[in-house]
Design a protein that fits this description.
The protein has 245 residues and is of the alpha/beta class. It has one domain: Purple Acid Phosphatase, chain A, domain 2. The chain has a six-stranded mixed sheet. Strands 4-5-6-10-7-8 form a six-stranded mixed sheet. Helix 7 packs antiparallel against helix 8. The chain is globular and about 50 Å long.
């Protein structure tokens, strides 16, 4: 099967629409979302409606959990807290109920694949993995990991290979998985990339070929940013879209 996997939409309907259009040429059998459907952007309901419709499973992200009242976010900076409160006031009852029901982890049966928003360690704490030393923290549970763990959260495209006592960072391009290794990969962000590439990011995982391919697609940033500027959201959430940070 070919799985289309994406994360960190962050209420950016222009970016999500571009990614869904790009997926049309990929012969995708099932879609999975790794969380943070809401937060930062101007279109939380529109994005939630699409993800609910297309994704076989969606993982709860920290912004989703905050909006749904599943975690304390009082320590977030003021603009982020305001965005979460604003989205909570906008979300339909159906979308709010959906966010409250999302799991912290999902295993794709028979695919050697597990999904979470952040590190597979301490799932409810949403810890980052964007550096080898963070991936190394997963070595004690190497035997428990599926061959591939896909995460979001950092908004960065990253791949780490793991063997007992060893972690190596690999290029985030086309990964051809090898026996004897396990992999943790961060799939980047649909709605708010932060690697100085303002294009939306997503991945395609082929369960038979055992390949993971990173993809990027341009979207209408000006429209997405203008919607933020015209709303009650922090203007910097729009500005940062142009530079991908």
């Amino acid at each position: 099967m070919r799985l289309g996997i994406f994360s960190d939409v962050h209420a950016n309907i222009e970016a999500l629409s571009a990614v869904m259009e790009a997926f049309e040429s990929e012969a995708i059998d099932e879609f999975y979302c790794l969380g943070d459907v809401v937060g930062y952007g101007a279109s939380p309901n529109e994005c939630a409606d699409i993800v609910r419709q297309v994704a076989h499973t969606t993982i709860v992200g920290n912004h989703d959990a905050a909006v749904a009242g599943r975690m304390d976010y009082s320590y977030y900076y003021e603009a982020a807290r305001h965005a979460l409160d604003f989205h909570a006031s906008l979300l339909s009852e159906e979308n709010m109920s959906w966010l409250r029901s999302l799991p912290y982890q999902h295993i794709v049966n028979g695919a050697g694949l597990q999904l979470s928003h952040g590190s597979p360690l301490r799932l409810e704490e949403f810890e980052y993995i964007f550096a080898p030393e963070q991936a190394r923290e997963c070595l004690p549970i190497w035997d428990e990991l599926e061959q591939l763990t896909l995460i979001g959260h950092s908004h960065l495209c990253k791949v780490f290979s793991l063997r007992p006592g060893e972690v190596e960072e690999l290029p985030a391009g086309l990964l051809e998985m090898e026996e004897g290794y396990k992999y943790i990969a961060s799939v980047g962000s649909v709605g708010q990339p932060r690697d100085y590439d303002n294009r939306s990011s997503y991945v395609v995982f082929d369960t038979e070929e055992r390949t993971l391919e990173f993809k990027r697609v341009e979207y209408d940033i000006e429209t997405a940013a203008t919607k933020i500027f015209d709303s009650d959201l922090e203007r910097n959430f729009g500005h940062r879209l142009f530079i991908g940070v």
